[in-house]
Design goal:
Largest sheet: 5 strands, antiparallel
Shape: elongated
Number of strands: 67
Helix content: under 10%
Radius of gyration: 43 Å
Number of helices: 2
Distance between the termini: 127 Å
Length: about 775
């Protein structure tokens, strides 16, 4: 047999990049042989303060046959007849110099997601708009309630769509404050919870500098190149198309070039994903050899400095990488981009365009079918669809699916269902139907991941007390039903759509009266797209409360205590083994009560833990101290010989937990103290509180002419001394007298603060101060 080696671009003829539109009013089309200029672009790009209004790339949506569906700058959408689409333009402009992106809706072949960044105040916000090509008799339109739906705030310029490992779904990758975000796009919509990859070459202190730049995915879906102009950095990252994670593998050394003359403005991969090209504005085009990712050599300058910068690069359907020189009416191309060095053959003028000066290059849909063997669906139980199309002759395809099954088919599109999960080597031989010559052969490993199946879940009848918390991880073992938790993960959600998108995972639930539906998702940790969902209800008819004390005490006058459970339950069981509603115990320690309540369709069990204890010893009053005393503010504190659970009172009727009594009125007191549980008590002798005025006015008007310790006559043995601010004794007054008249040696003293000291018969000394006012 004759083996004919085919270039990749001749296999599937990826036509999604056949038709190009870019500013200003320019366009070109690939006709299978070469490129021709187009003059039907009606989408004018406005220039505002020297910058292009809107993103740096027009969205050009071509179908898999290369037919134009629509093109847009993110605000105005034009259909294939170059008319405004239904419901276009929108009321939002895309952020200037940002990237735009487009992705298929896996659930609807007529629908497409268009992603742009808009300004909302001073914040840049990532949004999507849905275009439905079934509207307006097939000319398409914007879905009215799906225009500029906000996904996230503080999004930078970087944006690119990558294929998911299952071949059906896709990822939208962008950057939020220095963190890479990957949003999964599935038949259920766009996940609100992106996969994050932090610190992939970006330092926290880089701040706003990370918001500017460009990003591109390699054709083999394995690498992402991200340029950051302000940082003068290029990062190359490995992309895990199964998990959405990025890992930094290369960081370009910082150049000596100034920011003004050398920021990154574009990145693009060759068709074999082994060569990367970047532009440095006036420094031209650079090339990176990616054939050995562990040892990437220094970049190669493909073009030298030029007065006209090369701001944009974009790969065409034939593998050429096109560039433009701003404000020029022609387009250049790297004609052999898979070749390392100057042999890549750059020509700065391969096609003159009929449009006005060039401003940008477009962005396209990912090819529906990537080069070589491609497949959709990698979960056990799904039908895996394979594709491999040779675009010339009359080929016939011989498939070996790696599990003992083979198939011969002339279309290149076949389906197969794997009976078990595992890794399979798929082989396709493409032969010429007439000659039998081997036109193309390829093998590819495919991993089929296990798909969980959730068993039928019973409703949960909530028998917890009010304000109790249900922790959902307690149900994981029941939900997994024998599945390996190291392979399968469980999440819980309050809506079906959240479960489908794996959004808003809830960890716990505080029940309320009524029914709460909970959706459960089990996903394969290696391939979250392989999942199952189910639901159950948490039913709370009422909150069960066992209304009884949680502590009982055996007091000195009895050697046992009776524990009384409340009414309303159909059964009672104690940890002692007794099944009566009440039990009598004589030993201290914990006792558990189990009760059952009948709700008709179901019963609920609840339990209570009760402790039987001995009380603290009877109280002994050691002292009563005066904290503060005056005519209006009088406080005392009771000191006991031992700490314990005691209650205090000044009338023997109303008790409190605190040993302090504040703001007592003028009176005589007896203090009562009792043990709080068994009520053993004691009392003090009669307590005489001494009070005094905070000020007096000795002006002989009959009011406040004297200062005296009020109630001092109740203890005639006390000594009362008056001092000035320097400590000089001015007077000694008898407790039975009117008090001090504000004189010293018969002479009136001035307005000021004065101090006093009271010495009681028990030796206690009290001091304070008051004011004499004239």
């Amino acid at each position: 047999m004759l083996l004919i080696v085919l270039p990749f671009e001749h296999l599937n003829a990826q036509k999604e990049r056949n038709r190009w539109y870019f500013g200003m009013l320019a366009g070109m089309q690939y006709n299978g042989v070469g490129y021709i200029s187009l003059n039907d672009n009606t989408l004018e790009r406005n220039i505002v303060f020297g910058f292009i209004e809107g993103p740096d790339n027009i969205i050009c949506a071509n179908d898999e046959e290369g037919n134009l569906m629509f093109y847009s700058d993110g605000r105005t959408y034009r259909n294939a007849l170059h008319q405004n689409m239904l419901n276009s333009p929108t009321d939002e402009y895309a952020v200037r110099e940002s990237q735009a992106a487009i992705a298929r809706d896996p659930s609807n072949p007529d629908r497409y997601y268009v992603f742009v960044t808009i300004y909302d105040g001073v914040k840049q916000k990532l949004t999507y708009t849905i275009v439905d090509m079934s509207l307006n008799d097939g000319l398409g339109g914007l879905v009215p309630n799906k225009k500029h739906i906000i996904m996230s705030s503080r999004i930078g310029q970087h944006m690119v769509v990558a294929r998911h490992a299952n071949g059906r779904d896709s990822w939208l990758i962008c950057i939020h404050e220095g963190t890479y975000l990957a949003y999964l796009i599935t038949e259920n919509g766009i996940s609100n919870t992106p996969i994050t990859s932090n610190q992939q070459g970006i330092d926290f202190f880089d701040g706003n500098a990370t918001a500017f730049g460009v990003m591109e995915i390699s054709p083999d879906n394995k690498l992402i190149a991200a340029g950051f102009p302000v940082l003068r950095k290029l990062f190359i990252l490995e992309f895990n198309d199964l998990t959405g994670k990025l890992d930094l593998i290369y960081e370009e050394e910082e150049t000596e070039q100034s920011i003004d003359s050398g920021p990154f403005t574009s990145v693009e991969f060759s068709s074999n994903s082994k060569v990367l090209y970047t532009t440095y504005m006036a420094s031209g085009i650079q090339q990176y050899d990616l054939s050995d990712l562990d040892n990437i050599p220094p970049r190669i300058d493909i073009t030298t400095s030029s007065s006209n910068p090369y701001p944009y690069l974009k790969r065409g359907p034939d593998g050429q990488i096109f560039s433009i020189q701003s404000w020029q009416p022609f387009i250049g191309a790297i004609q052999n981009p898979n070749i390392i060095g100057l042999g890549c053959n750059y020509d700065d003028n391969v096609l003159g365009l009929s449009g006005t000066n060039l401003l940008d290059l477009p962005t396209f849909l990912l090819p529906k079918y990537p080069e070589g063997i491609s497949y959709i669906n990698i979960c056990k139980g799904e039908t895996t669809e394979f594709n491999c199309n040779v675009s010339f002759g009359r080929p016939i395809y011989y498939w070996d699916f790696g599990d003992g099954n083979t198939l011969t088919d002339p279309s290149g599109n076949v389906s197969h269902t794997y009976a078990s999960s595992g890794t399979y080597t798929v082989l396709v031989d493409v032969l010429d139907f007439y000659t039998g010559d081997l036109l193309y052969t390829e093998t590819k490993e495919i991993i089929i991941y296990g798909t969980p199946q959730i068993p039928e879940l019973d409703n949960v009848y909530n028998c917890f007390e009010e304000n109790s918390t249900v922790f959902f991880y307690d149900y994981n073992e029941y939900v997994l039903d024998g599945l390996d938790p190291d392979i399968y993960e469980v999440s819980y959600h309050y809506s079906e759509i959240d479960a489908l998108l794996k959004d808003n995972n809830v960890m716990e639930y505080i029940p309320d009266i009524g029914t709460q539906t909970v959706w459960v998702r089990i996903g394969n940790r290696l391939s979250p797209a392989c999942y199952d969902i189910a639901s159950f209800d948490i039913i709370t008819p009422e909150f069960i409360t066992i209304d009884m004390p949680d502590e009982y005490y055996i007091c000195d006058d009895r050697l046992e205590v009776t524990l009384n459970a409340p009414d309303g339950f159909i059964s009672y069981e104690w940890s002692t083994g007794e099944t009566t509603q009440s039990i009598t115990v004589s030993a201290i320690g914990p006792y558990t009560l189990y009760v059952t309540r009948d709700f008709g369709e179901f019963t609920c069990e609840s339990e209570a833990l009760i402790y039987v204890r001995t009380p603290d010893p009877p109280p002994v009053i050691e002292d009563i101290t005066v904290i503060d005393w005056s005519q209006n503010h009088n406080s005392i504190e009771v000191l006991l010989s031992e700490e314990g659970d005691y209650e205090y009172s000044t009338d023997g009727i109303n008790f409190q937990d605190s040993p302090q009594f504040l703001n007592l009125p003028i009176d005589d007191y007896i203090v009562y103290v009792r043990e709080a549980n068994c009520l053993y008590g004691t009392q003090s002798d009669t307590l005489f509180l001494l009070y005094y005025n905070k000020f007096f006015t000795p002006n002989n008007d009959g009011y406040n002419d004297y200062w005296q310790i009020i109630n001092s006559d109740k203890d005639e043995t006390i000594e009362i001394l008056i001092f000035n601010r320097y400590g000089k004794q001015l007077a000694q007054i008898k407790p039975t007298s009117k008090g001090w008249d504000g004189t010293y040696n018969g002479m009136p003293l001035p307005t000021s603060d004065y101090w006093f000291r009271v010495t009681r018969s028990n030796g206690q000394v009290h001091t304070g101060h008051f004011t004499l006012k004239r």
